[in-house]
Amino acid sequence: MRGLTGAWIQAAFGRFSEAPMAGHSQFKNIMHRKGKVDAVRSKVFSKLAREITVAAKMGLPDPNMNPRLRAAILAARAENMPKDNIQRAINKAVGGEGDNYEEIRYEGYGPGGAALIVEAMTDNRNRTASDIRSYFTKSGGNLAETGAVSFMFDRVGLVEFDAKVADADTMLEAAIEAGADDVASSEDGHEIYCEQSQLGDVSKALEAKFGEPKASKLIWRAQTPVAVDDEAGEKLLRLMETLEDHDDVQNVFANFEVSDAVMQKMAS
Predict the structure, then answer these.
(1) Exposure string (b/e) for 231-249, b if CB count within 10 Å is 16 or more?
(2) How many domains does the chain have?
(3) Range of the domain at 42
(4) Mean pLDDT for the stretch of residues 250-267
(5) Are both 132 and 177 inside the same structural domain?
(6) Does some domain include residue 13?
(7) Are 52 and 89 in contact, with CB atoms under 8 Å apart?
(8) Span 243-256, pLDDT tens digits
(9) What CATH number has the domain bearing residue 78?
């Protein structure tokens, strides 16, 4: 999927601008191309179940009344997580089962000076911090204090749809009407961005027209992606893969761009 940098509505009926794909989008695209083996899928399901349980614990166990739970269920469905698994995760929260997890955000710099934000959910803060720090160090980067790089990102809402639900013009018009700020459409699908406080309203308005979205969530969106050379790009993508593989890591965001050659090499 394609990320955007500093996009805006040029006029009342103008188009939203597009820019090269940013680091986290490139990484997700690479992981999608590689496919998932059973071991990886099992780990993905485990992380999704954890988020569902935590979301249900923090609010009502009804996704219609709990936006975070609804987002977690949408993410699970997008990964083809069985309905029984989803329900079990909700039941854990209702029954008071499961560990108590703490949500932590880590920030740091990777090779080439790229900024990364890592969102984790852990029952052992010291263990997770130690692991994340070691990953950054081994890659040639360094873990920084909270707030060290987040100012280079915007916290926004993202709604995703398959490309087949509408053409670019139709989605653009619907997104503007729903109150979105930005749209990126490509053969991979549609990405609709909005203010974080408007995510629920925008998502519901678009769902009424196009059906259930693939995802509806809050993300960290890079303000100005940084171009890195191929060597740094490979190291950054490997760092992101290592971070994503950690049991406690839920999301990884970055602000870099790499060449098509690196994309092809890493996806092979």
Answers:
(1) ebbbbbbbbbebbbebebb
(2) 3
(3) 34-94
(4) 87
(5) no
(6) no
(7) yes
(8) 999 999 999 999 99
(9) 1.10.10.200
Give the pLDDT score at 16: 41
CATH number for the domain harbouring residue 247: 3.30.70.980
The residue assigned the tokens 């949500």 is 103
Summarised one tens digit per residue, pLDDT across range 180-237 is 999 999 998 999 999 999 999 999 999 999 999 999 999 999 999 889 999 999 999 9
* pLDDT one-digit tens code per residue, 130-171: 999 999 999 999 999 999 999 999 999 999 999 999 999 999
